[in-house]
Write a structure and sequence with these properties.
Pfam families: Abhydrolase_6. The protein has 261 residues and is α/β, with parallel strands linked by helices. It contains 12 helices and 8 strands. The longest helix has 14 residues.
Length: 261
C-alpha cells in the first residue's frame, strides 16, 4: 500500500500492472482493498489504481466529505501521479464521484463503469443514514474470506463521510448530473442489492445512447464479489471497446442477461 500527501492530507492507495490507467473507486461500505481481485484481473493489460476517499480506510478524516470534495480529491490524485486520460470503475459512492468527475472533466475520463449507481436519490436505502458501516457490511456479505476486507475497513469509516455524501445527492441530481453526461458509461446492478435499488423500466428506457445497463440476477450490492469471474469478464469487455464507442454494442453472455418484465 502506498500513500501520498494531497493538501497536507494523507491519501492511501494501491497500484498494480502496466498499461493504460484505470481508477477503482469504492462504495459507502469498505475501502479500496475489496477491489484487489479486480485490480489483479485488470493488471494483465492495464495499470490499475485504487484509493481510499476522504473519510474511508486509512485516508484522512478531514470532514471534506461532499461529492464535490471527493471529486476534487480524484482530480488532485491524478495530477499528483501524472495520470492523463483514465477509465473509472466506481461503485456506489465511487460511481457517484466518478460520474461527477467525468462531467466536470470530460477530456480526462475515457469511460465509466458505474456499479450500483443510483439513478435518483430515492433509490438509496435509508439504512445508510442510521446503520453502522460494519453492520451494513456484515448484513450484505456475511463473514467470508472475500468479505473480510470490506468488514475490516468498514470499521475505519468516519460516519460523517457517508452522511456528507448523501446531503448533496439531491443537489447533484437537480443539476442534471446524469442527463448532462456524454461519456461512455456501463451501468451494472445486482438485482438483490439492498443498498441501491436497481433501475426501473422507465429509467432504463430513458438511458442515452452512450449508456448501457447490465443486471446480475443473483448479485447484491457487491456484485464484483458475488461473482468475480463474470464481473471481470464484463469489465474487460467494456475496457476493450474502442474509445468513444457505446457499451450498447457489447455482446452479453446469456448468463448476464436479465429479462425486464
Amino acid at each position: 500500500m502506498s500513500a501520498i500527501l494531497i493538501e497536507q492530507d494523507i491519501i492511501h492507495y494501491e497500484v498494480l500492472g502496466r498499461g493504460r490507467p484505470i481508477l477503482f473507486l469504492h462504495s459507502w461500505v469498505g475501502s479500496w482493498r475489496y477491489w484487489i481481485p479486480m485490480m489483479q484481473a485488470a493488471s494483465v493489460g492495464y495499470r490499475a489504481y485504487a484509493l481510499d476517499l476522504y473519510g474511508f480506510g486509512d485516508s484522512a478524516k478531514n470532514r471534506q466529505y461532499s461529492l464535490a470534495a471527493q471529486a476534487g480529491l480524484i482530480e488532485a490524485f491524478l495530477e499528483k501521479l501524472g495520470i492523463g486520460r483514465v477509465a473509472i470503475v466506481g461503485h456506489g459512492l465511487g460511481a457517484l464521484v466518478g460520474l461527477l468527475f467525468a462531467l466536470r472533466h470530460p477530456g480526462v475520463v475515457d469511460r465509466v463503469m458505474a456499479v450500483g449507481f443510483p439513478l435518483d436519490e430515492n433509490m438509496i436505502s435509508g439504512r445508510l443514514r442510521n446503520t453502522s458501516p460494519v453492520d451494513l457490511a456484515e448484513g450484505m456479505l456475511g463473514k467470508t474470506p472475500l468479505s473480510e476486507p470490506v468488514t475490516t475497513d468498514a470499521a475505519k469509516t468516519d460516519p460523517a463521510a457517508i452522511l456528507g455524501s448523501l446531503s448533496d445527492v439531491v443537489l447533484q441530481y437537480a443539476g442534471g448530473l446524469w442527463a448532462k453526461l456524454n461519456t461512455a458509461c456501463l451501468l451494472v446492478h445486482g438485482s438483490r442489492d439492498s443498498l441501491v435499488q436497481p433501475p426501473r423500466l422507465d429509467q432504463i428506457e430513458k438511458l442515452p445512447e452512450h449508456a448501457h445497463l447490465i443486471q446480475f440476477e443473483e448479485g447484491g450490492h457487491f456484485v464484483m464479489l458475488d461473482d468475480s469471474s463474470k464481473f471481470n469478464r464484463l469489465m474487460n469487455d467494456f475496457l476493450s471497446l474502442p474509445s468513444g464507442e457505446s457499451p450498447q454494442q457489447l455482446q452479453l453472455k446469456e448468463e448476464w442477461k436479465r429479462r425486464v418484465r
